[in-house]
Amino acid sequence: MSLNNLGLSAGQERLYRYLLRNPRPDLGTARADLAMPELPVVLAELREAGLVDDTLTAIPPAVAVDLLVRRRLDQTRRQLTELSLAWDVLTELSEEHRSGRPVQMVEHVPDGPAVTRRLRALMADDPGEFMHLKIRPRNDNSHFDNKPFARLLAGGLRSRTLFSADALTDPHQEPYARYWHGLGDLHRVTTEPIRHLAIVNRSVAFVQADPAQPNAGGLQIRQPGLVAMLADVFDGMWARARDLDDLPLSPLEQQVLRVLAEHSTDETAARALNISVRKFRAHVADLMARLGAATRFQAALRAKERGWL
C-alpha cells in the first residue's frame, strides 16, 4: 500500500522511507541518493506534518501511520460535513421553487405582521404541527387572525402552546388559554424563563430578532440542525410544564374556596371577602369550571381530592 492513500505525495513518501533506513543522514548524500533536488522543500513538509523531528529522524512507522490515518479521518469528516450542506441547499431551493422568491437559511423578517403572514402561509400549505412558546396566551396587540387558526385546528393541525406562569396574574389569561385548549391548541404553563418561539412542522422556526427591542421583528430559521435543536428545547420544556388543570390556586381563588366552605349563603360569603354577590358568584363559577364540577357540592369534593381544602 502506498502512503499516497494516506495523504503523502510520492516525493514525501520516498524521503520518509529513506529516513527510516538512514537515520540522521547527510542532506547532500540524501539528495544525491534520491536524485531529489527539491529535498529541502520536501523535508520541510515532512517536518511540518510531524513525520520527521528536528534531528531529521523519521518517527516510528506505527506512530506515523496512526497520525496519517487520524488526519485523513479528520479530512473525511470535514468533507462529509460539507456534503451534508447539500440537504440545506435542497431545502432552500425547494422553498424558492414553492414561493417564487429568494430564501435564506436565516432571514430577518421586519415586523410582527410579516411574521404572522409567514406563519399563516406555512400552516396553510402544510397544516401538520405547530409549537408555540410565548410569555402570555392572550396578546391584545397580536396580529394573528384567530379565525383561520381555528379552522386549521378543526382540520387536524396539532398545536401546542407553552406560556409563562407569570401571565396568570392577569385574570383574563387563563380563561383565554382554556378556550383555545378546548379547541385543540393544547396549553401548558411553565415557570422556566422563556422567549418567544414558533416552530412549524419542525422545519421552520421564528424567534425574536432582538428580545430587548420588541419592534425589531423576527428571524425566520430554516437551517435543519438549528430548528431541530429548538424543537428539542420546546419538547423538553413541554414535558416539564404543568397542565392547566394542575395549576395552583391564586390567593383570591383560595379565599373564595375557603369562604364557600365556611358560609351557608352567597351574601355572607361575599361580605367576608368584601366584594359584591355578583362578583363572588362569578368567582365561584370560574372555580367550578376549572374543577369540571356541575354543582357546588361536586366542586367541594373535587377541591378536597386535589388537596385545595
UniProtKB/TrEMBL annotation:
GO terms for biological process: regulation of DNA-templated transcription. Gene3D superfamilies: Winged helix-like DNA-binding domain superfamily/Winged helix DNA-binding domain. InterPro entries: Sig_transdc_resp-reg_C-effctor, TrmB-like, Tscrpt_reg_LuxR_C, WH-like_DNA-bd_sf. One of its GO terms (molecular function) is DNA binding. PROSITE patterns: HTH_LUXR_2 (PS50043). It comes from the Bacteria. Residues 242-307 form the HTH luxR-type domain. This is HTH luxR-type domain-containing protein. It comes from [Actinomadura] parvosata subsp. kistnae. The lineage of its organism: Bacteria, Bacillati, Actinomycetota, Actinomycetes, Streptosporangiales.
